[in-house]
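Subject: sequence -> structure tokens, single chain

Hey, anyone have a minute? Need the predicted structure for the following. Not urgent.
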Amino acid sequence: MKKKYIVKKSTDFTDIIKNGRYYKTDYFTIYIKDNTLTNYRFGISVSKKIGNAVTRNKIKRQMRMIIDNYKKNYQKGKDYIIIIKYSYISASFDQIQKVFENVIDNTNRINKEAKKDENK
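Reply:
Had a minute. Here:
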């Protein structure tokens, strides 16, 4: 993932979490908020409760791979924060990827419907 697609600042993280919409799954929570940029950005948060540094870095690498594989479907001008839950460890990579794809598809569908309602 390129640097322009990453949320790094702590203030950005807290702003997105406090003011964004969220979608909860069994394995992670995604917060989504509009930004003023022309591209989307992602941030990944893995708590120390989940495991040691090796485990946390492995989870972040997996999430970055899922994000990169599915990048055609993200909406430009959005920030996404993914907070990993403890149950992520027991799930398979394929399960997590399917859940992630479903959440992104649902958020895109909801946003399209909201835009149609605004235009009426």
